[in-house]
Amino acid sequence: MVRYIDDHKDRFGVEPICAVLPIAPSTYYEQKAREHDPDRRPARAIRDEALKPEIQRVFDENFRVYGAHKVWTQLNREGLRVARCTVERLMRQRGLRGVRRGRRTRTTIPAAAASQPPDLVKRNFHAPAPNRLRMVDITYVPSGPAGFGSSCQSFRFGDPGGVSQEN
Question: What is the span of the domain harbouring residue 22?
Answer without folding.
Answer: 2-94
